[in-house]
Predict the 3D structure of the following.
Amino acid sequence: MNLLIMGPPGAGKGTQAVEVAKELKIPHISTGDMLREAVKQGTEMGKKAKEYMDKGQLVPDEVIIGVVRDRLGQPDCKAGFLLDGFPRTLPQAEALDETLKNVGIKIDAVININVPRERIVARITGRRVCRACGDTYHVVNKPPQESGKCDKCGGELYQRSDDTEETVNKRLDVYEAQTQPLLDYYGRQGLVKDINGDQEIGKVLQDILDTLKQIKG
Ligand code: AP5
Ligand code: MG
Ligand code: ZN
């Protein structure tokens, strides 16, 4: 299946995408993770992207579109893919359509995770991420067994530099202004599957998998 996962910052896109991708045996492609990797590697793109990310702004379309196009051209995407955090603007959505059209494939569904805005700040400020493997935790909702240490690989847990209360509000504003309108774009194509993200992590996953089962028939 070729899937998109959408929703505001902190909705649980990454948390759910990891599990859904594992279940469907398709790659999870997170543009946020790819950009953070570029920042870590200190590439030119990473240096430029960091300035936007730390302010809660989107990196320019022309930067990210090329990155995603290259990634979707990799052989593992032949089996399908789950895109997390892309597209985020109308030009990105149009570029994706164009890329997919050229290889004759279509998006099967857009999973839209809904979480009320007032819940989001607590989710984001409590998030901790493994520096080594990228696994995501939450100090209250999904604590690691040992504080500050990844359950999976023992790596050090850190707080993303854009996970401050101030930046979160900016990211939410940017989401509402630039990304939320894409739900109409995909809604007109009948692709949007709304999921209640204000439930326990396992229940959200179950709802997503049940919804996808109905699509596959
Ligand atoms: P990105 O990394 O995509 O960040 P985001 O969209 O703000 O989303 P998050 O990763 O913050 O949230 P999430 O929905 O994945 O939540 P998670 O599962 O971690 O992008 C970062 C930046 O990169 C952007 O601001 C932009 O600058 C740039 N960028 C990226 N893509 C771009 C693009 N296409 N164009 C331009 N710029 C781009 O969960 C959050 C927390 O909540 C965790 O601690 C988790 O444990 C907890 N949690 C999850 N689910 C639940 C639940 N059901 N109940 C309780 N707690 C939960
Ligand atoms: Mg994420
Ligand atoms: Zn780890």
About this structure: Residues 201-216 form the longest helix (16 residues).
